[in-house]
Amino acid sequence: MTLHINHVTKRFGSFTAVDDLSLTINDKQIFGFLGANGAGKTTTFRMILGLIDQSEGQIDWNNQTIDYSITDKIGYLPEERGLYPKMKVKEQMIYLGRLRGMNKQAIIKELDYWLDRFKIPDYKEKKVEELSKGNQQKIQFISAVINQPKLLILDEPFSGLDPVNVELLKEAVIELKEKGTTIVFSSHQMSTVEELCESLCIMVKGKPVVQGSLKDIKRQFGKKNLLIHAEMDLEFLKEMSGVVKYAQTAEGCRLQINNEETSQQILTEIVQREGFIKRFDLLEPSLNDIFIEKVGESYE
């Protein structure tokens, strides 16, 4: 069940929110959308779900438009949470599950599983407004997956969560993917996207500026990171050919360099100097490095 987004544009009057976006998101994949606020991520999600119509282009999943006939196979967690604060968790899940064609017994079974999974089994009879923000977010997540969706769209699912709950939610996302769910999500947390996603799209002002598999994106970026811990002054490396960025750290420095050959030249240079080298690591570029450079280029 592949999701195709083909030359999609969305205009609101004279404002273009999404501009000629084309993507293919394969079955049973975790796909990440990145971008600053206003980049067009949420608008794209709403078009995929059929909540708003695109101005141009075509979107289909499993060769058909997403509409009410297949919403029982879709899950959606919006960035702006939409739970009913006065309703108890159990009542809310029964209501939402029934809207997706589930029977009460199946809803309760799924609810019990996820409450146990998130270590909050005693929250079933609590009102949403009685829960902490983090636990409300867990309930919102459960509402998006209660129907065992084949396609799950998560808009900023990790926003505002503490590290423990981020890990719980990441484990849940991976579990769903392993069970066959295609997952599309947005996040400002680069390390989380890097950890979870096989493929991604970085959007700026509605346009895709980077897209493809994470492995290919890193390879095409070209630049590497070099981490050096040494008992010597390393500031001379700022002026070396091939060094793009220099950042001093508590134990040495972190460099961005043009290629692997530059790292060899740096190693040759520092071993000739007086002082002990404790660490010399050549690292892949981080997604954060790529995001900052590509988004910055688009704003110049």
UniProtKB/TrEMBL annotation:
<keyword id="KW-0547">Nucleotide-binding</keyword>
<dbReference type="InterPro" id="IPR003593">
    <property type="entry name" value="AAA+_ATPase"/>
</dbReference>
<dbReference type="Pfam" id="PF13732">
    <property type="entry name" value="DrrA1-3_C"/>
</dbReference>
<feature type="domain" description="ABC transporter">
    <location>
        <begin position="3"/>
        <end position="230"/>
    </location>
</feature>
<keyword id="KW-0813">Transport</keyword>
<dbReference type="InterPro" id="IPR003439">
    <property type="entry name" value="ABC_transporter-like_ATP-bd"/>
</dbReference>
<protein>
    <submittedName>
        <fullName>Putative ABC transporter ATP-binding protein YhaQ</fullName>
    </submittedName>
</protein>
<dbReference type="GO" id="GO:0005524">
    <property type="term" value="F:ATP binding"/>
</dbReference>
<dbReference type="GO" id="GO:0016887">
    <property type="term" value="F:ATP hydrolysis activity"/>
</dbReference>
<dbReference type="InterPro" id="IPR050763">
    <property type="entry name" value="ABC_transporter_ATP-binding"/>
</dbReference>
<keyword id="KW-0067">ATP-binding</keyword>
<dbReference type="Pfam" id="PF00005">
    <property type="entry name" value="ABC_tran"/>
</dbReference>
<dbReference type="InterPro" id="IPR017871">
    <property type="entry name" value="ABC_transporter-like_CS"/>
</dbReference>
<dbReference type="InterPro" id="IPR025302">
    <property type="entry name" value="DrrA1/2-like_C"/>
</dbReference>
<comment type="similarity">
    <text>Belongs to the ABC transporter superfamily.</text>
</comment>
<dbReference type="InterPro" id="IPR027417">
    <property type="entry name" value="P-loop_NTPase"/>
</dbReference>
